[in-house]
Amino acid sequence: MDGIHGERLLMSDLEHMTGIGRSTIHYYIRKGLLSPPLRTGKTMAYYRDEHVRELRKIRRLREQGYPLSIISKKTGGSGKQRSEPIDVKAAARGGRRQQVMDTAVKVFAQKGYHRARISDITGALGISHSTFYLYFPSKKQLLVECVDETLESMFSDVIEEIKHETNPISRLRKRGEVAIERHPEFIDVLSVLRSTMDDDPRLEDKRKEIYRYIALHVKGDLDEAVKQGIIAPIDTEMAAYYLVIGLLETAALFMGTDESFSVDRLMDSMEFFLLASRRSGVADPHTQ
User: Fold this and answer.
1) Which site among 8, 15, 176, 196 is 20 to 30 Å from 261 CA-CA?
2) Predicted confidence (pLDDT) per residue in 6-58, tens digit
3) Distance separating alpha carbons of residues 119 and 103, to the nearest angstrom
């Protein structure tokens, strides 16, 4: 069954045709990534071939490494094309909102999250507090959205940079170059999040979530490097965290304060350590 004649599909059909479990499908519906089903009762829901197409597109994007926040934008939120005319006023508001976020990242990085005031942001932009609150209900929500926006922008650039690169070590290098060289604001927001961890566990969870997410993709490159025999067998999960946290924290420590620091120097050190175990013939005992 492939929904060719537009027949109604059950959840079990959807699972079988897409290879995606029902709990994940329900999650996509709640997040607005998937169109809601046709409900004929409290417990009966029907799906159509459009749901199959949406789920297959989501799965392709997930396999390419895109986070759900970016997938939502690529699929238009619910996978349906929008045909409404452009709202010029809304577009202008969106531009102002982005200006607030860009300015906030700079203010947070300079003053720290706790010392930064909303008036610092509004003053830099020449807007009123009431205008600020049109876009963000609080300073905390502004920080969270700044983090998400920065991560999405950086990740999109990474995907574009590595899409034709097959060497896993070169992929790792390009990941680091994009994150540190092209998106120094990403280093800033991580530093800001670190400064808030004692006051708000949710913000600390956000920081850990970012590290977990990046480490997952770095682990994929390390797994491939081991498979190709480029590096010695290692505990790729632990090594991924070492690389992610080590590179980002080192960059945060030296950027702007040490004239001898460069992204190339940092990436050269990473390659040396990764390839050194292969040259020495010493394997990670946790892989035995």
Assistant:
1) 196
2) 578 888 888 889 888 777 787 778 778 888 888 776 667 888 888 998 888 88
3) 12
